[in-house]
């Protein structure tokens, strides 16, 4: 199986200064390595503050590692080089509402990444926008819509459209389903599985919900206080968790996001 993304000995340390300028060094991510194969899904689980979002930010380029490197298809990703990274790795966020601009039509928002990162002309850009809207279950006419004219589910589809419009190989989803109600959440899970099938996208999927991870992921890493404490296939880790921390996490005893666990399984296509 070919490795697409490799996170190698990555760390992230924050230095905080208090009122009397005393420095406190905080290791948000301790030496961490893992890899992701093409078309596969790796879930990152962990309690609040375990370093999941920091790891997502390091992979997407929103934060720079203190040490270590990230490789895409064997090529080292250079911190700060957004052009290099944005063609391969894109992010979807928890709050689709906040990630869309209320002052721009969806068409304009989808065109932006194409203007900055592709050589497509106006006709080709329009074709790509319509094709992408259809891929996420929206219509070409949605180009003309402002975000506030769309339902919550449509907004999440729109933010996925924005993430896939450059045809990335990896999508990083940070609690992307946490605020959706259970039937919309199930529809978006089905959409993500469908896009993976058709486009071969690999996902890094951050979630505190065992149920969502079970449906979406092939492999899982479990984070605790900045370190990976357990990893393996979802089947192995879920059936035979080795750490008591993982056992508690899988019983949803360590999360403060109760709604995150509810998936309306009647809507799901595959277990
Ligand atoms: N910019 C920052 N400056 C200082 N500390 C930070 C910064 N960003 C994150 N941290 C700290 O790093 C730790 C890990 O945070 P992170 O957001 O990655 O955890 P998380 O597992 O995603 O948590 P949650 O599920 O609550 O989002 C936390 O203790 C957090 O306070």
Which parts are unreliable, with pLDDT below 50 for 5 consecutive residues or more? 257-267
- Radius of gyration from the alpha-carbon trace, in angstroms: 19 Å
Let me know the average pLDDT: 90
Question: Which CATH architecture of the largest domain?
Answer: 3-Layer(aba) Sandwich
Q: What are the secondary-structure elements, in order, as H or E?
A: EEEHEEHEHHHHEHEHEEHH
Strand content: 25-35%
CATH superfamily of the largest domain: P-loop containing nucleotide triphosphate hydrolases
Pfam families: ABC_tran (PF00005)
Family: Belongs to the ABC transporter superfamily.
Domain ABC transporter: 5-250
Main location: membrane
Topology diagram in text:
Layout: E1 3-17, E2 23-37, E3 41-46, H1 52-60, E4 67-72, E5 75-76, H2 82-86, E6 89-92, H3 96-99, H4 106-117, H5 122-135, H6 152-164, E7 170-174, H7 182-199, E8 202-206, H8 210-216, E9 219-224, E10 227-233, H9 234-239, H10 244-250
Parallel strand pairs: 3-8, 3-9, 6-7, 7-8
Antiparallel strand pairs: 1-2, 1-4, 4-5, 9-10
Helix pairs in contact: 5-6, 6-7
